[in-house]
């Protein structure tokens, strides 16, 4: 039995949306704050005295399910001291186009040297530009992303986030 | 299990023979020479990715049909054999990328079954909650795309409005919107943040209103009824014989839900109903999806009640053989550091054996068959792709269908091609 | 009191451009309105509030490659969009949009051509335009296009009948086939929407089908036939089809305003064209609203509805009106 | 519960709360019919083929020491190694059955075959087996006998080899890194 009145109800649903604020965000101008746990672009960290935290143990490379991290370690020498440990990462590269952002590398790192930041704007025009070298990873990211209240939306369980 | 009494419209549905998955053109039609063979897909707006349907048309009527799959075959199962158990957890999420949390759970549950682990209550309830949120997410994607395919374009946007909220919740808890790797063998990867509960409460209060909107838009809409009632019939017997599960089976009148039949996680402690509809047509599948969404919201609310009382409880088992040690110990305990290195480099070992774990994923029975040789890597992982099985029913559902019904039927079977091709 | 030919020429030139402009901004209106109904903004990058979007689209379409399938049949393939476009534009010539004015010592009519059989002209041109769609789909040599063109053929032919029958009531009441007379008549009595409400509904439904708008957009059902008859078209050839479709919709809305809503008549007479425009806008918005809300019908349901529901109702409406007109 | 009355019965096993019945490949269809009609296993969940080539031969590294002490009785927890139990033949085909009744009893029906040995098709018993068997043929190279349409399903029609076999080369694309050695 046709019930035209019920069909008309749907028109009300579409019509009333006109007076609501659209839910889409005008992206390049408005950046929605990500939650603090969001896993974005990687960062390598230094100690306050400038020494790198990474000691080149390759645990991150071992933990990576996508095999996108390459670490080549070298020995620190007294006149060329780079990291706090015995060795340092002479080459540290991440192929971002392969990375699946699972965050296993930051879980694996025993020295809190690598963490996943909140930046997600990491597209490039060329694949080779997606290969992040150590210098790029050590430098603070150029594009900043706002982050929601960390106190409320995160737990200080990942030690490094408290001390980063 | 009870099969609802079936209405008379079932006359005529039968599984094609000899090939159950191919609808063959009758010889007399073939000889007539009026058959137009059209290739729907692999690139077509409404084939859910890369499904290819070879369709024989007699005018507008579908007289022959063969589904060709494999265009998204990525070899997940082979890949997982090369990874340690720990690393392999990231793979199942990407198989059915709409029900990632359920897929992850089924694999983690298989590992835990082999290991004989008991997980802490907080992890149990949180897993239940996230699984139900994911079911909502999956049904919303289904609802949106099905509406779009039948021409109700606004439905897509309304469904995706709520989907966004769910993804935000996932981002809040797990750190990633889709492939979360949040379930680890033994519990959860991280504790639940304080701010999650109020955010999730807000969503639980909002969602029923949104579902009312969907129903106002579609459920009683004359054109929607015309398009979905009596289309894509599948009788209860045929559905069971074809291995259908989930909403498709329940829409055919079979009261079967693994959450009730063999309860896992906390499903035996929450209160919910299983919607069953008797007709086995596209409309009933739509109704099952809508009703399940309401039930999922109920379950999420109950999980929240329990979880709020579990503040401060452990979220992962304290077993140093399987779980990474707490991070603060890495700086103080040499033993912990060694464990950490061993688990990351070599991975934990899982006792020899074979298990088959099945859960009620949004699309039905999601099974995971795992064989372990006692080593750090799975010997064999096989997933029972729900969509893979669902697609087998296309030929049976397609009797007396027109081109437009073809779209509605394939849509109603709710297939995700990543899961079909794996 | 006829106007000289050169005034008609100037007017024709103006109206063609106005209609094209109206088409361009109808697409913008559709995208904006659909956007708001779907909780998004719609285009808002080109110009303030996206107001230059149609221009940007035009430039894009012109610069795009007009793909030519090697198996397509050359001449019909190229001519088809032109036919559709021409008839769509020509049909607008008999729509009155004002009462007519005196400028210096010349009289300017409120329409380009005051034909005494204007209604028939519109329908004839509309039927001719269908050939564009049919030929275009057939000449593309693609299965989807062929199916789309088959659907166009059947759908438009079926609904053409109901469309013509649904306006019979109005014609009988006005006693004329000239659109100008019909509007004048409504100015003296009431808009025919009131007495002819069934005719209006029939006209509206048949009109949606006639212009391939949702929920009757089967010929180009993008989720079934990809894009129906214009699957193989791209660039400005596709643009011509699109233009033709939108102008058909505008023409139909204009016809509806003329026949049922008293055309340019409104509270303040000199503002005639403005009233006409506002009414047109309202009708076009309803078309868009339908698209946002309703799912698509199926082919056989469409045909069944056309022949078994719409045609009898429209016929009955015409017969009853005729009886009443004769009686009183 | 004993399954000795299943036609072609070879052995049975219960582990992790799951029951497995191994039958002769030649009598698979009879066993399937028996289980479907007599025991109510009307629902075939899944068919999984497994390749056991090289099973139990791989050298395994031990895992040493724990903070909480070691439990030598748990293989996962270290210390001691056992080699896995050897399998009778190279391939296993596991049919995961489910009875749609309260308690949801499940049963794994298993057959063992060597490379090239045929397995009869159960499409006639459970129509859903169609694609599952095609998949087993495609990815594992199990010869299914009596299947109405045994073609490749996931791989290309002209694909060589069966990729999920253990002796199938893995290959893969090298990950791109900068040219710095």
Q: Could you characterize the architecture of this molecule?
A:
The complex is a heterotetramer of chains A (164), B (422), C (328) and D (181). Chain A is of the alpha+beta class. Chain A is 23% helix and 15% strand. Chain A has helices at residues 4-16, 59-63, 104-108, 134-138, 150-153, 159-163; strands at 42-44, 69-75, 87-95, 114-116, 131-132. In chain A, the strands form 2 sheets. Chain A has a 3-stranded antiparallel sheet with strand order 2-3-5. In chain A, strands 1-4 form a two-stranded antiparallel ribbon. The radius of gyration of chain A is 23 Å and the shape is elongated. Chain B is of the alpha+beta class and 422 residues long. Chain B is globular, with a radius of gyration of 23 Å. In chain B, 65% of the residues are buried. Chain D has helices at residues 28-37, 129-140; strands at 9-15, 18-23, 43-51, 91-98, 106-113, 118-120, 143-145. In chain D, the strands form 2 sheets. In chain D, strands 1-2-5-4-3 form a 5-stranded mixed sheet. A two-stranded parallel sheet of chain D has the order 6-7. In chain D, a hairpin with a 2-residue loop joins strand 1 and strand 2. The chains are: A alpha+beta (164), B alpha+beta (422), C mainly alpha (328), D alpha/beta (181).
Give a concise summary:
The complex is a heterotetramer of chains A (164), B (422), C (328) and D (181). Chain B is of the alpha+beta class and 422 residues long.
Mean pLDDT of chain B, nearest integer?
A: 86
Radius of gyration of chain B: 23 Å
The quaternary state of the protein chains shown equals heterotetramer
Shape of chain B: globular
- CATH superfamily descriptor of the domain at 83-318 and 348-382 in chain B: Cytochrome-c3 Hydrogenase, chain B
CATH topology of the domain at 83-318 and 348-382 in chain B: Cytochrome-c3 Hydrogenase, chain B
Q: Give the % helix of chain B.
A: 40-55%
Please estimate the helix content of chain C: 55-70%
Secondary-structure element pattern of chain B, one letter each: EHEEEHHHHHEEHHHHHHHHEEEHHHH
Essential attributes:
heterotetramer, A: 164 residues, alpha+beta, Alpha-Beta Plaits, three-stranded antiparallel sheet, two-stranded antiparallel sheet, 6 helices, disordered C terminus, C: 328 residues, mainly alpha, two-stranded antiparallel ribbon, 2 strands, 2% strand
Secondary structure topology:
The complex is a heterotetramer of chains A (164), B (422), C (328) and D (181).
Chain A: H1 4-16, E1 42-44, H2 59-63, E2 69-75, E3 87-95, H3 104-108, E4 114-116, E5 131-132, H4 134-138, H5 150-153, H6 159-163
Antiparallel strand pairs in A: 1-4, 2-3, 3-5
Chain C: H1 5-37, H2 53-63, H3 74-91, E1 101-103, E2 106-108, H4 118-139, H5 143-166, H6 168-174, H7 179-188, H8 197-210, H9 235-260, H10 272-293, H11 299-327
Helix pairs in contact in C: 1-9, 1-10, 2-9, 3-4, 3-9, 4-5, 5-8, 5-11, 6-11, 8-9, 8-11, 9-10
Chain D: E1 9-15, E2 18-23, H1 28-37, E3 43-51, E4 91-98, E5 106-113, E6 118-120, H2 129-140, E7 143-145
């Amino acid at each position: 039995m046709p019930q035209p009145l019920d069909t008309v109800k749907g028109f009300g649903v579409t019509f009333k949306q006109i007076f609501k604020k659209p839910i889409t965000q005008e992206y390049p101008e408005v950046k929605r704050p990500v939650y603090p746990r969001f896993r974005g672009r990687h960062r390598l960290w230094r100690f306050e005295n400038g020494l790198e935290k990474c000691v080149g143990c390759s645990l991150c490379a071992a933990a990576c399910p996508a095999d996108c991290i390459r670490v080549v370690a070298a020995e620190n020498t007294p006149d060329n001291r780079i990291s706090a440990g015995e060795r340092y990462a002479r080459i540290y590269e991440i192929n971002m186009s392969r990375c699946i952002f699972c965050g296993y590398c930051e879980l694996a790192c025993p020295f809190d040297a690598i963490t996943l930041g909140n930046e997600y704007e990491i597209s490039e025009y060329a694949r080779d530009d997606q290969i992040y070298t150590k210098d790029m990873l050590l430098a603070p990211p150029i594009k900043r992303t706002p982050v929601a209240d960390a106190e409320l939306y995160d737990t200080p369980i990942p030690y490094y986030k408290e001390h980063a | 299990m009870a099969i609802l009494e079936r209405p008379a419209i079932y006359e005529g549905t039968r599984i094609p023979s000899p090939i159950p998955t191919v609808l063959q053109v009758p010889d007399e039609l073939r000889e007539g020479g009026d058959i137009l063979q059209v290739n729907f897909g692999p690139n077509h707006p409404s084939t859910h990715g890369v499904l290819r349907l070879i369709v024989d048309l007699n005018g507008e009527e579908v007289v022959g049909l063969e589904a060709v799959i494999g265009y998204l075959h990525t070899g997940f199962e082979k890949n997982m054999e090369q990874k340690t158990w720990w690393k392999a957890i990231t793979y199942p999420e990407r198989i059915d990328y709409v029900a990632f949390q359920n897929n992850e759970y089924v694999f983690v549950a298989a590992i835990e079954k082999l290991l004989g682990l008991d997980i802490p209550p907080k992890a149990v309830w949180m897993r239940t909650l996230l699984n139900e949120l994911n079911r909502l997410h999956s049904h919303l994607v289904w609802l949106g795309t099905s509406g779009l395919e039948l021409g109700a374009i606004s439905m897509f946007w309304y469904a995706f409005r709520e989907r966004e909220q769910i993804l935000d919740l996932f981002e809040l808890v797990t750190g990633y919107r889709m492939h979360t790797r949040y379930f680890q063998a033994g519990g959860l990867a991280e504790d639940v943040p304080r701010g999650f509960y109020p955010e999730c409460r807000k969503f639980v209060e909002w969602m029923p209103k949104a579902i009312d909107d969907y129903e106002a838009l579609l459920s009683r809409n004359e054109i929607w009824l015309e398009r979905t009632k009596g289309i894509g019939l599948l009788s209860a017997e045929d559905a069971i014989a074809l291995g259908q599960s989930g909403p498709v089976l329940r829409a055919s009148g079979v009261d079967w839900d693994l959450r009730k039949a063999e309860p896992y996680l906390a499903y035996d402690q929450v209160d919910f109903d299983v919607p069953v509809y008797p007709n086995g047509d596209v409309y009933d599948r739509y109704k099952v999806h809508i009703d399940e969404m309401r039930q999922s919201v109920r379950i999420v609310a109950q999980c929240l009640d329990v979880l709020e009382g579990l503040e401060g409880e452990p979220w992962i088992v304290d077993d140093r053989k399987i779980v990474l040690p707490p991070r603060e110990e890495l700086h103080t305990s040499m033993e912990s550091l060694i464990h950490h290195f061993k688990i990351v480099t070599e991975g934990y070992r899982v006792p020899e054996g074979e298990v088959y774990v099945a859960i009620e994923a949004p699309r039905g029975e999601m099974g995971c068959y795992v064989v372990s040789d006692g080593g750090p890597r799975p010997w064999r992982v096989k997933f029972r792709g729900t969509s893979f099985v669902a697609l087998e029913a296309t030929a049976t559902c397609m009797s007396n269908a027109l081109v437009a019904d073809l779209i509605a039927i394939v849509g109603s079977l709710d297939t995700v091609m990543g899961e079909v091709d794996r | 009191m006829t106007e000289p030919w050169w005034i008609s020429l100037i007017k024709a030139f103006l109206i063609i451009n106005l209609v094209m402009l109206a088409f361009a901004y109808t697409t913008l209106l559709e995208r904006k309105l659909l956007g708001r109904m779907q909780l998004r903004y719609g285009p808002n990058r080109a110009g303030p509030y996206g107001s230059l979007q149609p221009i940007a689209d035009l430039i894009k379409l012109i610069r795009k490659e007009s793909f030519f399938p090697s198996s397509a049949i050359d001449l019909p393939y190229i001519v088809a969009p032109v036919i559709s476009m021409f008839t769509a534009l020509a049909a607008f010539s008999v729509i009155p949009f004002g009462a007519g004015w005196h400028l210096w010592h010349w009289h300017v009519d409120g329409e380009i051509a005051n034909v005494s059989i204007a209604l028939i002209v519109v329908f004839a041109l509309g039927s001719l335009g269908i050939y564009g769609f049919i030929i275009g789909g057939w000449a593309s040599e693609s299965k989807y296009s062929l199916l789309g063109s088959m659907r166009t053929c059947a759908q438009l032919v079926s609904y053409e009948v109901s469309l013509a029958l649904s306006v019979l009531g109005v014609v009988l009441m006005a006693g004329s086939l000239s659109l100008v007379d019909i509007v004048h008549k409504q100015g003296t009595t009431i808009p025919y929407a009131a007495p002819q409400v069934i005719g209006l509904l029939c006209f509206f439904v048949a009109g949606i089908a006639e212009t391939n708008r949702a929920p009757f957009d089967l010929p180009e059902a993008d989720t079934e036939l990809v894009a129906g008859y214009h699957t193989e078209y791209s660039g400005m050839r596709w643009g011509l089809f699109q233009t033709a479709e939108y102008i058909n919709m505008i023409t139909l809305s204009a016809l509806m305003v003329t026949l049922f809503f008293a055309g340019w008549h409104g509270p303040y007479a000199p503002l005639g064209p403005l009233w006409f425009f506002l009414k047109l806008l309202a009708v076009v918005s309803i078309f868009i609203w339908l698209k946002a809300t309703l799912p698509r019908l199926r082919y056989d349901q469409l045909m069944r509805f056309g022949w078994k529901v719409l045609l009898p109702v429209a016929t009955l409406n015409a017969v009853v009106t005729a009886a009443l007109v004769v009686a009183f | 519960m004993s399954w000795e009355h299943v036609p072609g019965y070879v052995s049975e096993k219960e582990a992790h709360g799951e029951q497995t019945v191994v039958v002769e490949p030649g009598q698979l269809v009879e066993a399937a019919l028996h289980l479907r009609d007599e025991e109510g296993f009307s629902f075939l969940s899944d068919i999984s083929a497994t390749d056991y080539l090289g099973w139990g031969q791989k050298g395994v590294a031990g895992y040493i020491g724990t903070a909480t002490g070691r439990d030598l009785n748990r293989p996962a927890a270290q210390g001691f190694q056992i080699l896995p139990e050897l399998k009778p033949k190279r391939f296993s085909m596991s049919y995961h059955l489910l009875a749609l009744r309260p308690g949801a009893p499940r049963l794994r029906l298993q057959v063992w075959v060597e490379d090239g040995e045929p397995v009869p098709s159960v499409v006639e018993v459970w129509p859903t087996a169609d694609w599952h068997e095609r998949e087993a043929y495609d990815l594992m190279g199990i010869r299914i006998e009596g299947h109405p349409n045994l073609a490749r399903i996931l791989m290309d029609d002209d694909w060589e080899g069966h990729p999920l076999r253990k002796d199938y080369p893995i290959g893969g694309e090298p990950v791109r890194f900068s040219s710095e050695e």
